[in-house]
Amino acid sequence: MWMLLAVREFLLGIHSEHEILREEIKSLQYIRSRLETRVNDLEDELRKVKEEAEKAAKASKSEEDEDVPMAQRKRFTRVEMARVLMERNQYKERFMELQEAVRWTEMIRASKTDPNLAATAAGANGGGAGADKKGQKGIWKL
After folding, report:
1. Could you read off the pLDDT of 77-101 as tens digits, one per residue?
2. How far is residue 76 CA from its own chain's centroid?
3. What is the DSSP letter of 72?
4. DSSP state of 123
5. Each residue's pLDDT tens digit, 99-131
6. Distance from C-alpha of 108 to C-alpha of 140, rounded to nearest angstrom
7. Within 13 Å, how many C-alpha atoms sit on residue 89's CB side?
8. Domains of the chain: which residue ranges?
Protein backbone atom coordinates (compact mmCIF):
# COMPACT_ATOMS: atom_id res chain seq x y z
CA MET A 1 0.00 0.00 0.00
CA TRP A 2 2.72 2.39 0.89
CA MET A 3 4.17 1.52 -2.51
CA LEU A 4 1.04 2.75 -4.26
CA LEU A 5 1.15 5.99 -2.31
CA ALA A 6 4.77 6.54 -3.30
CA VAL A 7 3.97 5.88 -6.95
CA ARG A 8 0.96 8.21 -6.76
CA GLU A 9 3.03 11.03 -5.26
CA PHE A 10 5.69 10.47 -7.89
CA LEU A 11 3.11 10.66 -10.68
CA LEU A 12 1.62 13.83 -9.21
CA GLY A 13 5.09 15.38 -9.10
CA ILE A 14 5.72 14.42 -12.69
CA HIS A 15 2.31 15.74 -13.73
CA SER A 16 2.89 19.07 -12.03
CA GLU A 17 6.36 19.34 -13.63
CA HIS A 18 4.78 18.52 -16.96
CA GLU A 19 2.24 21.33 -16.52
CA ILE A 20 4.97 23.78 -15.54
CA LEU A 21 7.00 22.86 -18.61
CA ARG A 22 3.93 23.26 -20.87
CA GLU A 23 3.38 26.75 -19.51
CA GLU A 24 7.04 27.57 -20.05
CA ILE A 25 6.82 26.30 -23.64
CA LYS A 26 3.78 28.51 -24.28
CA SER A 27 5.59 31.48 -22.80
CA LEU A 28 8.70 30.87 -24.91
CA GLN A 29 6.61 30.43 -28.08
CA TYR A 30 4.93 33.77 -27.41
CA ILE A 31 8.30 35.46 -26.85
CA ARG A 32 9.63 33.84 -30.03
CA SER A 33 6.73 35.13 -32.13
CA ARG A 34 7.20 38.64 -30.70
CA LEU A 35 10.92 38.54 -31.48
CA GLU A 36 10.29 37.29 -35.03
CA THR A 37 7.89 40.19 -35.56
CA ARG A 38 10.51 42.58 -34.20
CA VAL A 39 13.18 41.13 -36.49
CA ASN A 40 10.91 41.57 -39.53
CA ASP A 41 10.17 45.16 -38.55
CA LEU A 42 13.88 45.89 -38.12
CA GLU A 43 14.70 44.30 -41.49
CA ASP A 44 12.09 46.50 -43.17
CA GLU A 45 13.50 49.57 -41.45
CA LEU A 46 17.03 48.59 -42.46
CA ARG A 47 15.96 48.15 -46.09
CA LYS A 48 14.36 51.61 -46.08
CA VAL A 49 17.42 53.22 -44.50
CA LYS A 50 19.71 51.57 -47.07
CA GLU A 51 17.56 52.85 -49.92
CA GLU A 52 17.62 56.36 -48.47
CA ALA A 53 21.39 56.18 -48.00
CA GLU A 54 21.89 55.04 -51.60
CA LYS A 55 19.70 57.86 -52.87
CA ALA A 56 21.60 60.37 -50.77
CA ALA A 57 24.94 58.99 -51.94
CA LYS A 58 23.88 59.18 -55.59
CA ALA A 59 22.62 62.71 -55.12
CA SER A 60 25.80 63.88 -53.40
CA LYS A 61 28.00 62.10 -55.94
CA SER A 62 26.20 63.68 -58.86
CA GLU A 63 26.51 67.09 -57.18
CA GLU A 64 30.23 66.51 -56.61
CA ASP A 65 30.70 65.39 -60.21
CA GLU A 66 28.99 68.52 -61.46
CA ASP A 67 31.33 70.75 -59.44
CA VAL A 68 34.56 69.10 -60.68
CA PRO A 69 35.61 69.64 -64.30
CA MET A 70 35.75 66.54 -66.50
CA ALA A 71 39.55 66.66 -66.81
CA GLN A 72 40.03 66.51 -63.03
CA ARG A 73 37.61 63.68 -62.20
CA LYS A 74 38.99 60.38 -61.01
CA ARG A 75 38.48 57.65 -63.54
CA PHE A 76 40.36 54.79 -61.88
CA THR A 77 41.35 53.82 -58.37
CA ARG A 78 44.99 53.37 -57.50
CA VAL A 79 44.58 49.60 -57.33
CA GLU A 80 43.00 49.44 -60.77
CA MET A 81 45.72 51.63 -62.24
CA ALA A 82 48.46 49.51 -60.63
CA ARG A 83 46.88 46.35 -62.05
CA VAL A 84 46.65 47.86 -65.54
CA LEU A 85 50.28 49.01 -65.44
CA MET A 86 51.45 45.61 -64.24
CA GLU A 87 49.58 43.89 -67.08
CA ARG A 88 51.01 46.35 -69.59
CA ASN A 89 54.55 45.66 -68.37
CA GLN A 90 53.99 41.91 -68.62
CA TYR A 91 52.71 42.25 -72.18
CA LYS A 92 55.64 44.48 -73.08
CA GLU A 93 58.11 41.96 -71.65
CA ARG A 94 56.44 39.12 -73.54
CA PHE A 95 56.52 41.20 -76.75
CA MET A 96 60.25 41.81 -76.37
CA GLU A 97 60.86 38.09 -75.77
CA LEU A 98 58.93 37.24 -78.93
CA GLN A 99 60.87 39.84 -80.93
CA GLU A 100 64.13 38.29 -79.75
CA ALA A 101 62.89 34.81 -80.68
CA VAL A 102 61.95 36.03 -84.17
CA ARG A 103 65.43 37.54 -84.62
CA TRP A 104 67.06 34.27 -83.57
CA THR A 105 64.94 32.23 -85.97
CA GLU A 106 65.72 34.65 -88.78
CA MET A 107 69.43 34.35 -88.03
CA ILE A 108 69.26 30.55 -87.97
CA ARG A 109 67.33 30.49 -91.24
CA ALA A 110 69.83 32.91 -92.81
CA SER A 111 72.79 30.83 -91.66
CA LYS A 112 71.27 27.69 -93.19
CA THR A 113 70.57 29.31 -96.57
CA ASP A 114 73.68 31.49 -96.91
CA PRO A 115 76.59 31.13 -94.44
CA ASN A 116 78.24 34.32 -95.77
CA LEU A 117 75.09 36.32 -95.00
CA ALA A 118 75.04 34.99 -91.46
CA ALA A 119 78.66 36.06 -90.90
CA THR A 120 77.89 39.53 -92.22
CA ALA A 121 74.80 39.79 -90.02
CA ALA A 122 76.79 38.62 -87.03
CA GLY A 123 79.31 41.38 -87.62
CA ALA A 124 76.53 43.94 -87.92
CA ASN A 125 74.72 42.70 -84.79
CA GLY A 126 77.58 43.15 -82.41
CA GLY A 127 80.29 40.76 -83.61
CA GLY A 128 82.71 43.67 -83.36
CA ALA A 129 85.52 44.74 -85.66
CA GLY A 130 88.22 43.13 -83.54
CA ALA A 131 86.76 39.59 -83.65
CA ASP A 132 88.14 37.21 -86.25
CA LYS A 133 86.00 35.40 -88.84
CA LYS A 134 86.33 31.99 -87.11
CA GLY A 135 84.98 33.37 -83.83
CA GLN A 136 82.00 34.93 -85.59
CA LYS A 137 81.09 31.75 -87.40
CA GLY A 138 81.37 29.73 -84.20
CA ILE A 139 79.06 32.05 -82.32
CA TRP A 140 76.38 32.47 -84.98
CA LYS A 141 76.38 29.00 -86.41
CA LEU A 142 74.01 27.01 -84.22
Report:
1. 888 899 999 999 999 999 999 999 9
2. 17
3. G
4. I
5. 999 999 998 888 888 767 655 555 555 544 444
6. 8
7. 6
8. 1-65
